[in-house]
């Protein structure tokens, strides 16, 4: 049974359980005074807006150079993929695999996964509530690892600064990639996972 079926509203701010009063059109939390809603207002619309923006920025994040490494005054800008290829050519396959996973696979999975969740809920696609919630939890878990590339670039820019001998400069691709990561994290936060269970009966997943 869902909390809403039992006449309980969960505060989105402090998670206090409040009994629902049908006579009160604008209920407030008894603990913190925040407005109570059965579901987060405009959750799907806000999540789609953040997700579409992240998808648009995902193109320049992969096309534009993410950083430029200069040695003895010479260097060329690298995109995420060209950086992975360069690492592989120098025999650093484990590092290349980590960068490829954190910078290519994880953001792509998050974009596709959140879009699939939204589409399946809106269109009542044959995807069980258990499958959806596992996907949602996995998206939340891997979200933090998407910032690995940005952390590496920030450390390199701060540490490798020896003038013409060796220097690392961030490029516009890094800004676009950071925006993609932040937007997908916000998209996962604005999505209300309780909407998954609202579709349980229509998905014939009543266990």
Helix-strand topology string: EEHEEHHHHEHH
Distance between the termini: 11 Å
> How many H/I helices?
7
By helix and strand content, what is the structural category? Answer: mainly alpha
Shape field = elongated
Radius of gyration: 22 Å
Count of beta strands: 5
Main sheet record? 3 strands, antiparallel
* Parts with pLDDT < 50 across at least 5 consecutive residues: 202-207
Strand portion:
5-15%
In percent, how helical is the residue content? 40-55%
Widest sheet: strand order?
Answer: 4-3-5
Q: Round the mean pLDDT to the nearest integer and report it.
A: 78
Q: What does this entry look like structurally?
A:
The chain is mainly alpha-helical and 207 residues long. 54% of the residues lie in helices and 10% in strands. The chain has seven helices and five strands. Strands 4-3-5 form a three-stranded antiparallel beta sheet. A two-stranded antiparallel ribbon has the order 1-2. β3 and β4 form a beta hairpin. α1 runs antiparallel to α3, α1 packs antiparallel against α6 and α3 runs antiparallel to α4. It is elongated.
Identify the notable features of this structure and list them briefly.
mainly alpha; 5 strands; 3-stranded antiparallel beta sheet; two-stranded antiparallel sheet; 10% strand
